[in-house]
Amino acid sequence: MEERVKFYGLRDLSIGWYENRIIELIENYSSKSENDWDVNDVLELFNVKKFIDQSVFKDWTEARIKKAKEVSKKVNRLFNEFFTKKEIFDILHNIHLLNAEYYDDFFELLSKVNIHQMVSESDFEIAYKSTKLPIRFLLF
Fold it and tell me: b vs e for 22-35, b when ≥16 Cβ sit within 10 Å of the residue's Cβ?
């Protein structure tokens, strides 16, 4: 499994560890088509966006910072398109495909795109129970 970006907070010591991967994702963002993204790719970008929005890398050049901010804006559209253009059962099926470090991000992002307006409570309950995930992921 490849090492993916995860934002744990501004004081986390892993920030420097992810810098090269973040740069790679920013530089290559536009080379992927919308259909090439899987749920873990989208959630990794969600974490990259958190780094960008917190202005973590202060030693970057102005050009790299500008590019990062442009990508951050585009990523918002990707989130909405990824979760709203799919059938709800496809989205819920993605729970089974998640890397463990992205469980919390998945549910955070679902709440940001208002998943509760797209799926019935009973359908969500059935899908969630099938994952065997602890309820804590829903209680953030």
Answer: bbebbeebeeeeee
pLDDT (tens digit per residue) in 54-65: 988 888 999 999
Are 53 and 31 in contact, with CB atoms under 8 Å apart? no
What are the percentages of helix, strand and coil residues in the chain, rounded to 5? 70, 0, 30
Point out the residues of the chain with pLDDT beneath 50: none
Q: How is residue 94 annotated by DSSP?
A: G
Q: Which DSSP string do the residues of 45-64 spell out, in sequence order?
A: HHHHHHHHHTT--TTS-HHH
Q: What distances in angstroms separate CA 8 from CA 11, 53, 118, 119, one per listed residue?
A: 8, 14, 29, 29
